[in-house]
User: Which sequence fits this backbone?
């Protein structure tokens, strides 16, 4: 196994173990997403037919907001004891750190989605009319789209004042096409009115473009101190 | 190079006043839309100028990342700021025209949404520059500018899926246009391009001078610690 892969696995294992013991990120994300669900249902009062139409947007907005909570903690952990500085002076490839963080966040958000989906189904009486298996594809691609840019922008935003606020300000404008694709794909699968193919292709393109860009530029951001 | 600045300033002033005359007096009133159509002579040139400035920002950011040239970074700041101003002009003049013609202020159509998203991306770029505490602000800002540019085609295709309500470009298309209208439009297009270049240039010079002053002050306080106190 190459050094990069070993490093990715070590960092990822460390992050997962830390999260498993503290459960900080997942607990705050879960509660946050639950709050979004409850507050949305109060503000829309959705009936079954109506809810199917807006559910796509609702689900992803809740996940997006909740994901920011986890993404903000990504790098804060490495500031203690100058871990990040140590990383910078070591000959370790920067991209393996980035990949480890991204995969870690992907796992956190995916766990959140798995736990929250039943809640959504219960609260909004959801039932997919279109091909439901496509929802899994949309969820995987969509989560990666959120997380890859989120992890990257978290590394940028923690170099600013008021870093917790800066992350959504950077992440949301760039994420608009992916969010639109996730919402439209989910809605068209739930209502069964349109095909979600175009949106899935767009999401895949978004993932490829921004994964490449992040891997290409992360070293610059890591060393920009 | 410094002599070119007043020349450009005079050229811009002449072109803008000539363009104003052309747009308000010479160009005929449009048959169905009436006088409100004349906003088109400012709306489209502003959009064009904003687009050019954002492209300049992208080129300057890449230049900075490759050669670490501070002047390129100053140009990136200037073009993004001025581009946001022109983009704001587009977003304001658009609804003024749309309300009497379409009957609505805003619609989530391809071009409108694309302009709005562009505006959002570059405002977040300016915010990042403002809030950054790192000494490497130019690097992370340039990285964000590249991400923003990569996003544009994706935004385009994602919104392309919706119905397009914006009028299709008349010039180059099948539609016919009064030559006086075309003339007024082209004059304003050139005038606005010059205007954008002029404002961007002034902002660029301001930025360079500001950095020089900051550098000198830092040096002076290092050399004479007592007098600085």
Assistant:
């Amino acid at each position: 196994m190459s050094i990069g892969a070993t490093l990715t696995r070590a960092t990822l294992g460390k992050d997962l173990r830390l999260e498993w013991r503290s459960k900080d990120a997942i607990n705050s994300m879960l509660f946050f997403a639950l709050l979004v669900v409850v507050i949305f249902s109060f503000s829309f009062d959705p009936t079954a037919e109506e809810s199917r139409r807006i559910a796509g947007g609702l689900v992803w907005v809740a996940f997006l907001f909740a994901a920011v909570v986890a993404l903000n903690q990504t790098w804060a952990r490495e500031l203690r004891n100058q871990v990040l500085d140590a990383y910078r002076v070591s000959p370790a490839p920067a991209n393996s750190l980035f990949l480890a963080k991204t995969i870690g966040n992907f796992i956190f958000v995916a766990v959140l989605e798995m736990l929250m989906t039943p809640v959504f189904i219960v609260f909004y009486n959801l039932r997919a009319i279109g091909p439901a298996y496509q929802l899994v594809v949309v969820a995987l691609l969509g989560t990666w789209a959120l997380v890859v840019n989120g992890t990257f922008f978290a590394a940028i935003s923690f170099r600013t004042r008021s870093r917790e606020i800066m992350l959504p300000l950077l992440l949301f404008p760039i994420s608009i096409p992916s969010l639109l694709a996730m919402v439209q794909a989910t809605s068209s699968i739930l209502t069964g009115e349109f095909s979600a193919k175009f949106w899935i292709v767009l999401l895949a393109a978004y993932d490829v473009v921004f994964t490449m860009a992040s891997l290409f530029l992360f070293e610059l951001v890591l060393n920009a101190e | 190079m410094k002599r070119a600045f007043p020349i450009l300033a005079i050229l811009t002033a002449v072109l803008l006043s000539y363009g104003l005359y052309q747009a308000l007096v010479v160009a005929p009133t449009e048959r169905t839309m009436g006088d409100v159509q004349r906003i088109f002579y400012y709306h489209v040139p502003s959009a064009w100028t904003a687009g050019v400035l954002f492209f300049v920002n992208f080129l300057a950011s890449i230049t900075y990342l490759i050669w670490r040239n501070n002047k390129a970074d100053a140009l990136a700041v200037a073009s993004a700021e001025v581009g946001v101003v022109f983009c704001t002009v587009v977003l304001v003049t658009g609804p003024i025209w749309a309300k009497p013609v379409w009957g609505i202020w805003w619609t989530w159509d391809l071009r409108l949404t694309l302009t709005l998203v562009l505006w959002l991306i570059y405002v977040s770029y300016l915010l990042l520059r403002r809030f950054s505490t790192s000494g490497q602000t130019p690097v992370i800002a340039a990285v964000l500018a590249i991400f923003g540019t990569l996003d544009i085609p994706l935004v385009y295709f994602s919104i392309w899926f919706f119905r397009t309500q914006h009028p299709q470009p008349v010039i180059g298309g099948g539609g016919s246009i009064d030559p006086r209208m075309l003339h007024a439009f082209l004059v304003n297009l050139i005038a606005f391009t010059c205007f954008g270049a002029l404002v961007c240039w002034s902002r660029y010079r301001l930025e360079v001078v500001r950095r020089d002053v900051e550098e000198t002050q830092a040096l002076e306080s290092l050399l004479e610690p007592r007098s600085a106190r």
Observations:
- Chain A has a mean pLDDT of 87.
- Chain A touches chain B at residues 149, 152, 156-157, 159-162, 166, 169-170, 172-174, 176-178, 180-181, 184, 198-199, 202, 205-206, 209-210, 213, 217, 220-221, 223-225 (CB under 8 Å).
- Residues 3-223 of chain A form one domain.
- The radius of gyration of chain A is 18 Å.
